Amino acid sequence: MPRWSAMILAGGGGEGLGVLTRRRAVAAVPFGGSYRVIDFALSNCVNSGIVDLAVLTQQSPSGLRRHIGRGRPWDLDRRDGGVRILQPYLHREKGQWYRGTAEALSQNLDYIEDSKAELFLVLCGDAVYKMDYQRMLAFHRAAGAEATLAVKRVPLGEAGRFGIVEIDADGRVVAFEEKPADPKSDLAFMGIYLFSRAGLLESLAQVGQGGKGFDLVADVLPDFVAEGRVLVYRFGGYWEDVGTLAAYYRAHMDLLRPNTTLRLDDPDWPIHTRGPQMPPAHFARGARCRSSLVAEGVIVEGEVVESILYPGARVGRGASVKRSILMPGTRVEDGAVVEDAVLDEKVVVEAGTRVAPGEGEAVSVVGECEVVQG
Amino acid sequence: MKSRGAARAGGSLRRSVEPPLVVLLAGGQGERLGILSEERAKPAVPFGGRYRIIDFALSNCVNSGFYDVLVLAQYRPRSLDEHIGVGKPWDLDRARGGIEILQPYPGQVGSDWYRGTADAVCHNFQSILEKPSTRVLVLCGDHVYKMDYRQMVAFHQDRRADVTIATVPVGKTVARQMGVLSADETGRVVDFEEKPETPAGSLASMGVYLFEIPFLRDILQWDSPQEWPVDFGRDVIPAILRDHGVYAFPFDGYWLDIGTIDSYYQANMDLLSETPQLDLLDADWVIFTNEEGGPPARVDAGAEVESSLMAHGCVVGGRVARSILFPGVHVGEGARVEDSIVMTGCQIGPAAIVRRAILDKQVRVGERVSVGSEKAKRANRLFPEHLSSGLTLVGKRSVLPAGVRVGGNCLVGPKVGPSLWREVHHLTDGETLTRSQPLSA
Fold first, then answer.
1. Does residue B332 sit at the A interface (CB-CB below 8 Å)?
2. DSSP states of B377-434 as a string?
3. Model confidence pLDDT, tens digit, residues A163-184
């Protein structure tokens, strides 16, 4: 078993999520009633046996930093390894924000050089999925690859939303297109790379050199692709990049399906998080609740249908919440109606008012701490 | 929408108080709790869907700013050890002070095992003297309440008391099982009776004492082990009333000594009120526990849930009413759980019925099983004094195979496997089934 280490790219500010990322990185956005998006990457790492990892932050890092702390909820508070947070910093000669994924890594070259790992798993922290990276590692080693990309088949009609990878008969990557109008393949890149140490160091040496840019896929990998050095590993499970509001909402509704493949209560693949200390959810007399996920500290006095209630959310008497996401500390007061909505943390929907999508909107989103008045 | 989370554990306190050392008595066997405390210390008995009883005392300490705690364990300490660990959930993992669990060991002065509260303190007095505090707050790990102990310390300081006893008005509790006392208008205790037949006083001792340490050393006669008193309430307090400053601090919040199965059940059910007296959502007085958290509870399409508490990881496909579900409880489709306490990891099969029952951890209730009854015809035959109000208890990790029926006031011991049900499919009201008592016919 070689030593391996993970680097989680969690710097994205997530324009696609609108007000949800006004004050937090995509990786720190709440997900699934108890979690934050990055919990999936972190838990996958730990469950796969990777206990030496770095989280690379840039946009709105403070929430992520607080969430991860010393990594105790993931059992990553370790003497040897554990989790550390790497932020852009001022060098002796210059200070430069990361201009892309490759530069995020290249600016932390010292971390990579100091690491004893022989393999580096580079992950995007913006997706929700449960994946055993051990299998990808086994594939990578059996194939003797220098770089392996994890891909997932998507319906060809939706391929235009993703980075699409074309491969030859041997499974080698021959081309890569970001959000193609006319996709030539149905293999979507998941933002998961496995590099040999030498391969990673070689690729990072090119960052920003000779007119090259700062993105791993667009600027660094093409040379490797041209030399036939990049393979793909096919992943068959549930995976959703939650960087857009539509995807974020859809991924939540997927959790409510009775046969969801993103089960959060699988004892063999636990998703860990840092949660608040709150009492069990309280369902009052006359409460009605079905097809929903309900976290601790919630009080339900009214009706909740096909919704996800985060810790401390409250639904008052005679209120109705349908197909909605109520983030921590939201309050839907007596008689209010919330339909097809995402209420960010600490939103208050005052008694008797209504939140629902407007004309042409699929989902109504209310930003953090806003008060919806009648 | 009812206002919750605003109630305070005590009024504001502007004056600073000197934090005392805390000695938390956690050695109780809780015989009257039957199988709930058969394999765990009473303070480690699960409570309120997520907690253990001792969490209340521990959280009160840290919320009061007291971070130097000695826990005196004796009976079944492993459950406490595992729960408390290094004290991290309570922020009691400290470089100075923090939490320490002390256990009896052979060769200590005095008798080997602790005989009572005062005896337990005597055994560990050296550890108390080694602490920097000049006062010690003696607490009991069996009580459910939220109390700002700083108020009591300020009260004690103001009166320059030797001892202060926290009290609740008599009537709130069964006076005959308590220490009952009377105080004058300054709060000074003038009369104290332990477990009186006919209580004369109007205040009941909560078993929470604040002592000046040098004073305590003298009255316990710590230097003469053969003279050590056994109990504070019975032996120590009545003897010092006349000559020393013994004061009664009036506490007016919710307080319950979990003594019996019925009081345990009632304290849990009290949490289901719309405005519970013991508000666990109070952001200013968080009750901390060693429970990692987990996925949100899943309420399926055919489920109905009302007047209930439900912790993380539950999956409910049936009807749950007036019940408390601890983490990871599964309730199958068409099943009914009513007026019950269901602990961590229990599995209730489809179409099963659970009524007025307490299921300890990891009990498996098969399909179409019926446990408990709304009207039990007789008290438990073996333990009539503990099980007569109609509740049924099922011990940790027992299995009730499909189709089995268990009546009211019944007791099913821990780890009763399917084989024990081969002879009996129906446990009628008041009957008992344990591994050592296969059939009480």
1. no
2. SS--SS-TTTS-SS-EEE-TT-EE-TT-EE-TT-EE-TT--GGGGSS-SEE-TT-EE-
3. 999 999 988 999 999 899 999 9
Enclosing H/E stretch for B353: strand B353-355
Of A284, A293, A334, the CB nearest to B307: A284
Give me the amino acid identity at B374.
E
Using a CB-CB cut-off of 8 Å, the residues of chain A touching B303 are 289-290
A281 touches chain B (CB under 8 A): yes
Task: Give the SS3 label for residue B274.
Answer: coil
Which tens digit of pLDDT belongs to each residue from A267-316?
999 999 998 889 999 999 999 999 999 999 999 999 999 999 999 999 99
Give the one of A275, A309, A316 whose C-beta lies nearest to B293's C-beta: A275
Q: Please answer yes or no on whether B49 and A279 come within 8 Å at the CB atom.
A: yes
Nearest CA-CA partner of B194 in B234, B167, B249, B229: B234
Closest-CA residue to B108 (of B92, B80, B127, B89): B127
CB proximity A348 to B under 8 Å: no
Chain B 85-104, residues with CB within 8 Å of chain A CB atoms: 89
Residue B355 to residue B392: CA distance in whole angstroms: 8
- Half-sphere exposure in the Cβ direction for B21 (13 Å, CA): 23
Q: What percent of chain B has pLDDT over 90?
A: 75
Quick check: pTM over 0.90? yes
